[in-house]
Write a structure and sequence with these properties.
The chain is an alpha+beta fold and 186 residues long. It contains five helices and twelve strands. The strands form four sheets. Strands 1-2-10-7 form a four-stranded mixed β-sheet. Strands 3-9-8 form a three-stranded antiparallel β-sheet, with helices on one face. The two termini are 32 Å apart. Bound molecules: S-adenosylmethionine and zinc ion (ZN). The site of S-adenosylmethionine has 15 residues, from strand 2, helix 2 and strand 7.
């Protein structure tokens, strides 16, 4: 489930729509959490879908082991940015890496999600844009996103967390560990 203070808006002809903040979302806020309504599709089932259904699954879901996860809400419309303001990293939730202002787009770094197989030209417009989103870049960029996650998660308990009921206990333990790690580096 995506943070409630968000809506879908047109971005451009080439990118399509994206998700934007309707109110300020402070750093450390959970912006997305897995919830029971998300749709889990075994790979074998995806193979048997109608091509029109497959096209939607390919565009909007990501692979986790031998199944695909398709968000049931507008979380599926979050775009990629090479300077993303949200990140998750093998947890079942994502947090804001910096304050996200009203009207600002929420973005992920798809490379950190391992969410896609085919590279695509990037139009994120960030000064850090690499021009092309390459799945193979994950090992190179992972330490950077781990550092940013650890820095932002420090604020986890200091901000309003409307999605907290959807964060599971093991992920909350990960929050504590990340906070300790970042305190150790301070
Ligand atoms: C999960 S969808 C995001 C929602 C999408 N913009 C839409 O309107 O349906 C992922 C697709 O959005 C487009 N997209 C997302 N981020 C992009 C970016 N930075 N540059 C170019 N296209 C992007 C690509 O076509 C990608 O396959
Ligand atoms: Zn980019």
């Amino acid at each position: 489930m995506l943070h409630p203070d968000t809506l879908i808006r047109h971005v451009s002809e080439a990118i399509g729509v994206g998700v934007f903040a309707t109110r300020r979302i402070p750093r450390g806020t959970v912006t997305w959490a897995r919830d029971p309504l998300d749709i889990l599709l075994p790979t074998a089932q995806v193979r048997d879908l109608h091509p029109l259904q497959q096209a939607i699954v390919n565009r909007y879901s990501w692979r986790e082991g031998d199944r695909w996860i398709l968000c049931w809400d507008h979380a599926r419309y979050v775009n990629h940015s090479c300077d993303a303001n949200c990140v998750g990293l093998e947890v079942q939730f994502e947090i804001a890496l910096r304050d996200i202002e009203p009207g600002e787009q929420l973005t992920d770094d798809y490379r950190s999600l391992g969410a896609f197989d085919e590279p695509f030209p990037c139009m994120c417009g960030s000064t850090r844009c690499t021009g092309r989103v390459e799945p193979a870049d994950l090992p190179r960029i992972r330490p950077l996103w781990e550092t940013r996650f650890a820095a932002a998660v420090v604020d986890f308990h200091a901000v309003a967390q409307p999605l907290l009921p959807f964060v599971n206990a093991s992920d909350l333990a990960r929050v504590a560990t990340s906070k300790e790690l970042s305190a150790g580096h301070a």
